[in-house]
Write a structure and sequence with these properties.
Elements (H helix, E strand, L loop, with lengths): L11 E7 L4 E10 L2 E11 L6 H19 L3 E5 L7 H20 L4 E4 L1 H9 L6 H11 L12 H17 L10 H7 L8
Parallel strand pairs: 1-4, 4-5
Antiparallel strand pairs: 1-2, 2-3
Helix pairs in contact: 1-2, 3-5, 4-5
Length: 194
């Protein structure tokens, strides 16, 4: 899905990736005046390739293409969760690594988020279902119901991008300060008085 728009209108663009070896989701988030909006989301279908190596090649190709098309400032990628099947984990890690290599090849900084952290940022519940994440994203970003894809990988990727927007928009406490109170005590000149 793609909302045609002039990329120059955005102050910042974040690409979100939900890695997978059968289906990889992507979401493109635009930030304008500190407000997020969906630019595009979609999936990369990989299950038509029998060879795992062809799938990895396709991931690199498509992620590179998305980066060239949308010119993101950053990539937010979902970290693989640890499962019981070692072979599946290895394949998923490779898929994630290839997507990251595509970003690194284009000098796009990468930030990794655990699935639980993404769910918490979007729904307030780290154990939320993929459907709950999709519904919250639809509401937060005003996505029309008919624009949602049946594959939840696309909204998972968009959720990674929105999670990164939230995380990177938070005020940061200076290193060495353990609280805002300590920061204010060290820097009284930085506090605006009414």
């Amino acid at each position: 899905m793609n909302n045609d728009c002039d990329l120059q209108q955005w102050d910042r663009i974040i690409i979100g990736i939900d890695p997978g070896t059968n289906i990889m989701g992507y979401g493109i988030l635009g930030i304008k005046d500190k407000k997020p909006a969906m630019i595009a989301m979609g999936i990369i279908e990989l299950n038509k390739f029998e060879s795992h190596y062809l799938r990895l090649s396709r991931i690199f190709e498509r992620v590179t293409g998305l980066i060239q098309q949308y010119l993101p400032d950053e990539m937010a990628i979902e970290a693989p969760f640890f499962g019981k099947n070692v072979q599946s984990m290895l394949k998923l890690g490779r898929a994630q690594g290839v997507a990251m290599a595509a970003a690194l090849n284009r000098d796009v900084p990468i930030i990794e988020y655990e699935p639980r952290k993404i769910k918490m940022a979007i729904t307030g519940n780290g154990a939320a279902s993929k459907e709950q994440v999709q519904e919250m994203l639809r509401r937060i970003l005003n996505i029309p119901q008919e624009s949602l894809l049946p594959q939840l990988d696309a909204t998972d990727a968009l959720a990674a991008a929105l999670c990164h927007f939230y995380e990177s928009s938070r005020p940061q406490i200076e290193k060495g300060c353990r609280s805002w109170k300590e920061f204010i005590a060290k820097h009284p000149d930085k506090i605006k008085k009414p």
